[in-house]
Amino acid sequence: xxxxxxxxxxxxxxxxxxELRALMFASMDVAGLDDPRWRQAAEKWLERELAGRHTCVAxxxxxxxxxxxxxxxxxxxxxxxxxxxxxxxxxxxxxxxxPDARRQGLARACVVEVLRWLREETEAHLVELFAxxxxxxxxxxxxxxxxxxxxxxxxxxx
Length: 158
Known about the structure:
It is a single chain. The chain is 34% helix and 23% strand. The protein is an alpha+beta fold. The protein has one domain: Aminopeptidase (3-Layer(aba) Sandwich). The chain has a 5-stranded mixed sheet. α1 (14-27) crosses α2. The longest helix is centred in the N-terminal third of the chain and has 17 residues, at 36-52. 25% of the residues are buried.
């Protein structure tokens, strides 16, 4: 990993983050990857969010500027509860590595950076993520544990 620099993304990195996001969705067999609308919307969203630093994205970047891996963290605000007394949650997502850069510790370094951001620069008390089978070993090693309640989802038709 010594040839790589871990840094926070800027709004100029939005397209590279979207490409990593597409890799993540492909590994999850998410339908609709070829639809350009989601990519355009995601790029605009990331440009705005990264300019304002509301979202933290850590990237592994080579000396030539090539983005090879990344991880994202964002905040979610809910009513305080016994599980999370201040109601501020961190959500780690968008963890992905280009195929030719895997097994070098890049994703781990990016996740460690976003966890550092959550720990040191936010009020988050709990951090969640949705793990793929391929990524679950990394998250176990970093201290994540399964929850008792699996996620459920409802798409609201508009």
